[in-house]
Structure formats: C-alpha cells, structure tokens
Request: fold
Amino acid sequence: MIRLAVLDDYQHVAMQSADWSPLADRAEIVVFHDHLAGHDELVQRLATFDAVCIMRERTPMTAALIAALPRLKLIASTGRGNASIDLDAAAKHGVEVMHTNYSSTPTIEFTWAAILALARSIAVEAASVRAGHWQVGLGTELRGKTLGILGLGRIGAEVARIAQAFGMQVIAWSQNLTDEAASAVGVRRVSKDALLAQSDFLSIHTRLSDRTLGLIGAAELAAMKPTARLINSSRGPIVDEQALIDALSHGRLAGAAVDVFEVEPLAADHPFRTLTNVLTTPHIGYVTEEMYRTFYGDSVSNVVAWLDQRVRS
Reply:
C-alpha cells in the first residue's frame, strides 16, 4: 500500500469526480480540502506520502519542497503541463511526474461569461437588487466594439470566433503571431501599441513565461482607452497587479474581470475584493464538472499505471 495525498480539494468534490475503486486495495488516499502555502507546513503534511495528486498550480512543487520529501515518488498533476512543478528537481530525486488530458472549452466559455458580465454590469446590478435597490447604471453593447486578443492560440482563436458572432471587430497581437495565423481565424494582426489603443475589451490568452511576466504594466494600461475593459483568465503575473489596481481605482480603466492572481487564494484584504469596477472570481475558468471528471479520472489511471510499472520493474 502506498499513501496518496490529494491536495487542495477546495470544493470537496475530488472523490465524487472519479471512480477511485481501482486504488482501493493499493493506496491509502487522504484528501485535503484546505490550502497550505508555507514550506515547513507542506513538508510536515506530505512527509509520509509516496504520491501526491495536485490540482493545477494550486500547490507549487518546488525544488526545495521535492528535496524535503524523500519518500515522494510520484506527482500526479492535472492538466497537460504544469509550470509550477520543478521538473529538473523531480528527475534529480527520482520523482515521476504524470499529467492528464485537458479541454479548452471551460476557459473559452468562461471568458465570454466574463465579457458579457462586464459589458452589462451583471454583478453590480445583481448586488443592487439583493440590497433592495433597482437599476444603478448603463450597460454597453458588444456589436461594433473592438475585441483585442493578446495571444491567439487555441483558446484565443475560439474566443475570437465567438466575438465575430456578436458583430465585434477582432484584432490580435503576440510576440510570434503572423498575419497568416491571424487571418486564418478572421482576425487582423496589429502591433502591441495598436492592440492597446484600439481595444474596447482586451482579453489575455497567452502563457506565463519570462517573456510575458508583467507584459501588461502601468505603461500598457495607460495606453488603453479609459472606457476599455480588461479580461484576464490566463495567469495573474502577466498583468502587473498593483498597476491594474491603480488604473481601476483612479478611473483610468472602465473595468476588469480577473480570475487569476499573483498569489492564490486571494488575501482577505485584497483590493480586488472591494473595487466596484472589477469582477473578481476565484480562478474558476477551468472549474467545471466535466473538466474535473477528466482531471481526477485521468489521475486515477495515472496512479494505477505507475503502480503497475513498479510491480513489473
């Protein structure tokens, strides 16, 4: 019997999202519903486990953490890749890393939920009704507006196609985007400066890397229209968080929908929790029943395959 830790099951759904019975007589499974961020606390919690099942980047598997867990032999991560796992450290310490399948559908659909909610001030108007009031503002139509896509990959391209159904003009930019790739999905490639200046809605769909860290900072936000709205369902550090807070606080940007943050979970006193022109959601872009069934179902299969390989070797 091995010991398997399932981490960060915020919604208490991990065991209901898959059939774990193939591991019934092969693993002692312990599910943790809270989140630990401290290194020492994580080491203490995970010291007796042979394997961990992690949900995306919620608990980074750093070199220091891996080195402090000599019993650990398997990291079963959800998603096709996970930048928060130090793969070199895992290899050095003989820890195998396995991944699951992934679908872009939840994030694509969530992006449009966020855009529509921003355009019509859904959260503000709903809060007004709950507080006993009535209409408090005016929405804006999407038809004829310009949607800017920062990162026209798998997700960005689908977001762009849906924009066309709303009658929006779509422009895009990223470091490697070509005219051919943009035109293939009916999008016009522009410069970064033009993307910022022309977008009524700017949606971010690029990966976090050294090149994209802080890609949208104070200067970029200042170059946007004061009536523009920013949507980030990609990764928090792509946008300078304090610069965005400043722009929203001083009315230099009409609004933002933010689903990802520099530090997660979000601190209780974080300004995003109280700013009225930001739609703040708890990193739920990928969180659907269907996606969780894939994540946890594949994780079970991965652990079974890893155990079978151990028996054969």
Notes: The chain has two domains: 2-102+289-312, 105-280. The first strand starts at residue 2 and ends at 6.
